[in-house]
TrEMBL record:
Protein name: Efflux RND transporter periplasmic adaptor subunit
Keywords: Coiled coil, Transport
Coiled-coil ranges from the UniProt annotation: 89-154
NCBIfam families: RND_mfp
Boundaries of every Multidrug resistance protein MdtA-like barrel-sandwich hybrid domain copy: 55-184
Source taxon at top rank: Bacteria
Native source species: Dyella flava
Family: Belongs to the membrane fusion protein (MFP) (TC 8.A.1) family.
Gene3D superfamilies: 2.40.30.170, 2.40.420.20, 2.40.50.100
Key word DNA repair present: no
Compartments (UniProt record): Cell envelope
Domain Multidrug resistance protein MdtA-like C-terminal permuted SH3 intervals: 276-335
Amino acid sequence: MAAALVLLAGCGRHAPEADAATPVIALPVQAAAAVTAGRFPGEAHARYEMPLSFRVGGQLSARYVNPGDRVKQGQALAQLDPTDASNQLAAAKAALEAAQHRLLFATQQRDRDEAQSKQNLISQLQLEQTEDNYASALAARDQAQQQFQLAQNQSRYTTLVADHDGAITSRQADVGQVLAAGQEVFGFAWSGEREVYLDVPESRIDGVVTGQPATISLPALPGQVLSGHVREIAPAADPQSRTYLVKLTIDQPSSRLQLGMTADAVLQGTQPSKAAVSIPATALFHQGEHPAVWVVRPADSTLELRNVTVARYGERDVLVTDGLKPGERVLMQGVHTVSAGEKVAPIAPPHAEDAPQ
């Protein structure tokens, strides 16, 4: 009976099974494709556009230019009623002359009292009073000079002058209107550099980068293609249209290009570095403060958590420029359910649309 029990016990033992591999969705990563933003309509603008206004308030008495006029630097554009400014200038000039006369008298009195003080003909107190009168007269003269210069500036500011060559784009004030200081009178566009403004939808703004080259064609100039590049991208979308303003600088503006012309801009693709790869956003993990991904080791099919450098975040994917190589197998989903060193069995996504594009 003992022998039979030993035989039965031996039959109940089995060899230990190898550790079972965990099935995970892991696929080889592909090299990133070129970033292409596509084609967008636009409008021609000047590199510098700004409102022109008077630095002082007053009644507009004359307007010398109209929208569409080209002006030169230093050219007078409009005039305020100069009566008040002229009166202030005359009053400041009279005050300065009076202060200069008082200073001359105080200087002569000081010189006389200093000479008499040396001969002990006057007291020290009288000399000190004379010197105090001289110091007060000198300060009053300096103050009057500053007021006179200010009045001169105020008088000069009644004439609106172009500070650069350019064109008048709009008119915001009429003759007889009382204007406040800084109130817009004209819209003004500088001559020289030209740009094209684009409204890029938020779904396509990821494909636009500063410095990206572009080709620009205009229906008004058939057969002429201009080259440019992205100079500026708005940091926030327009609250109403939900589009981003992108400004293209034209490298060699055409003399035939007029402000406000409609344009058709094609943003050329920018090719990432050879080491850049694109992975789904669901594959991104974080090790502390650093982005990381789970990489399947080809030797033993175990997981390794590796730090990566992310160059750009998209809606569904991220661009990795360091830490991964094309062809390496990366965990695409379930990054929070695995651990380092875990043995896995890579499988494809159950739905084809879930595979990275």
